[in-house]
Amino acid sequence: MAQPVGDGLTASDAGIDDPLRDRGDGERHADRGVAVVLLVVALAALARPVLEHLFDRPAIAQWATIFVAIAVQAMPFLVLGVSVSAAIAAFVPAGFLPRMLPSSPVLAVPVAAAAGAALPGCECGSVPIAGRLIARGAPPAAALAFLLSAPAINPVVLVSTAVAFPGKPEVVGARLLASLLAAIVVGLLWSRFGRDHLLDPGRRRMHEHEGPHLRVFMLTAQHDLLSAGGFLIIGAGTAATLQTVVPRSVLDSVAGTDLVAVLALGLLAVLMAICSEADAFVAASLTQFSLTARLTFMVVGPMVDVKLIALQAGTFGRSFAVRFAPMTLLVAIVSSVAVGWWLL
Amino acid sequence: MTAAGSTILLLIGTVLLRLTVSGTYRRYVRVGMGPWLAVAGVTVVVLGIVTLIYVLRRPDAPADHPVHAAPEDVDEIDDRVHPDRIMIGWLLLAPIAALLLVAPPTLGSFGVSRSAAVNVHAGGAVFDPLPHGTGPVPMTLLEYGQRSFDRHGSSLAGATVELTGFISRLDNGGFQLARYQIACCAADAVPAIVIVEGVAGHPPRRDAWVKVTGAYVRGTGALPRFSATSVLEIPVPNEPYE
């Protein structure tokens, strides 16, 4: 049981997160945690009249609705992503993934990016999966390419794009191409210039439990769901705040000019943090903008947004996220402009 | 926080299931998400129960405990320095608390003027005329808008139409009727707006849900217009979004 697995991670890495560690003063500790949960719920119950009163204010009600909506909407996808991640931890032997991928990053990155097409779902699910792939020894550049491509090019997202832009199949093609291109470029850039040690905090966070497969699956899923879920809440709160505070009509003033419009919609995608399965419908409604600007919205959204930055900071570490998000944003915008100029 | 973590998961799962069973989830996400929320809720409840059993079960052998070689134990120190990763799961209690106590309401008029209205001119669909003399035809605001801009509303000619939405603005002699379209969740909501005129008497207050019956009138502006013969105040519908 005490043997290190994978890249030297043992249950001791889990700190107070792991029941194996809780044994000494474990019982007391567990009781305290549960007591705090109950206390929070009880306090919230006492605060109920205050809450009801707050919801009488339209801005606060709108904020709360959008906040809860993003959290509720993301849960099924997060549960799917966490289950896949936990299944990899529990059932895929360490060392298997590195053997599966071509050893040269020039080949591994495109293969991983294309593999993203196989994961139906939106961006919340792919973060824990990519984190797990790295913890299991997959080349970081390849895992990052997968992280970026999976929410953008899977069949569900492409079909919803086709539905949102009826009679314009070129939009679907442009989205697929621009997203794939951006994911591959970011992956290759990372393999050339990236510093894998930036991912070390993330590797430690992705600690590996030990024991029977089912136990590993359950404990990993619990840990991932709690940490990813917590960061999702930060992202949902940020997105709800921005949506409530910044009126969308501000956008109309910049719709005319080409490059400004592209940058504005790229920024909007970051701020709104819409699920990648829904962003095509929002893009379709932004008719005052050029198709290239709307393509940028759909390419940037699944790769960089406030919710994702929070999730990535939580999964891979903050110093990684502050470098990765701006680089990805830049590559995604350039890739959209290039593909948009060619296809649209 | 494993025991506490399991409790939080149990709460999340329970809240998801409660949202699904009570139908309240329709305020936040589109109706088709219901089954997926139920599956997610059951999964999270099972996860919470099983991990709670793992924690509460007495340890079988202390030898299982990993030996701590002090110099190698940097990771643990790292965790102490970054307590956020342990504490972050607590944030999940925020939406749970909100949902358990007072579920936030459906989106209302606040956001209507602040977001771009849905574009009813896009697509350019051509509609068949509505049947005559069969009573009012219920219709979404989106379809009404699209029909009224398709060949100047000729498919609506002579028909009685019934629209359902909430009042987003009170005007002289009428109001703006709005209803949100959502693709995924309330975060991507875009309102469809119809200008309702010819309202006799005092119109209900802003944010009231109403069912209006009437007919098409030709307008010149960017928003479709509607002439009401009756306005009935109703409770918030089961499916608040189109």
Percent helix of chain A, as a range, is over 70%
**CATH class call of the largest domain in chain B:** Mainly Beta
Total number of strands of chain B: 6
Oligomer: heterodimer
Q: How does CATH name the architecture of the largest domain in chain B?
A: Beta Barrel
Name the shape of chain A in a single word: globular
Tally of contiguous helical segments of chain B = 6
* Major protein interface: A-B, 101 and 90 residues
Q: Can you tell me the residue ranges of chain B where pLDDT is under 50 for at least 5 consecutive residues?
A: 59-85
SSE arrangement of chain A, N to C: HHHHHHHHHHHHHHHH
CATH topology of the largest domain in chain B: the name is OB fold (Dihydrolipoamide Acetyltransferase, E2P)
What proportion strand of chain B? Answer: 15-25%
Give, in spatial order, the strands making up the sheet with the most strands of chain B: 2-3-4-6-5
Radius of gyration of chain A: 21 Å
Q: Count the beta strands of chain A.
A: 0
Outline type of chain B: elongated
Count of discrete domains of chain B: 2
Provide an overview of this structure:
The complex is a heterodimer of chains A (344) and B (242). Chain A has helices at 26-46, 48-54, 58-91, 96-100, 105-115, 123-135, 140-153, 155-164, 169-193, 200-205, 213-245, 258-272, 279-285, 291-300, 306-316, 318-343. Chain A has one domain. With 344 residues, chain A is mainly α. In chain A, 60% of the residues are buried. In chain A, helix 7 (140-153) runs antiparallel to helix 9 and helix 12 (258-272) packs parallel to helix 14. The longest helix of chain A is centred in the N-terminal third of the chain and has 34 residues, at 58-91. Chain A has 16 helices and no strands. Chain A is globular and about 60 Å long. Chain B is α/β, with parallel strands linked by helices and 242 residues long. Chain B folds into 2 domains: 2-104, no CATH class; 110-234, Nucleic acid-binding proteins (OB fold (Dihydrolipoamide Acetyltransferase, E2P), Beta Barrel), CATH 2.40.50.140. In chain B, 31% of the residues lie in helices and 20% in strands. Chain B contains 6 helices and 6 strands; from the N terminus they run αααααβαβββββ. Chain B has helices at 2-22, 34-56, 74-81, 84-87, 93-101, 141-149; strands at 137-139, 161-171, 174-181, 190-197, 209-217, 225-234. Chain B has a 5-stranded mixed beta barrel. In chain B, helix 1 packs antiparallel against helix 2. The model of chain B is unreliable at 59-85 (pLDDT under 50). Chains A and B meet through helix 1, helix 2, helix 3, helix 10 and helix 11 of A and helix 1, helix 2, helix 3, helix 4 and helix 5 of B.
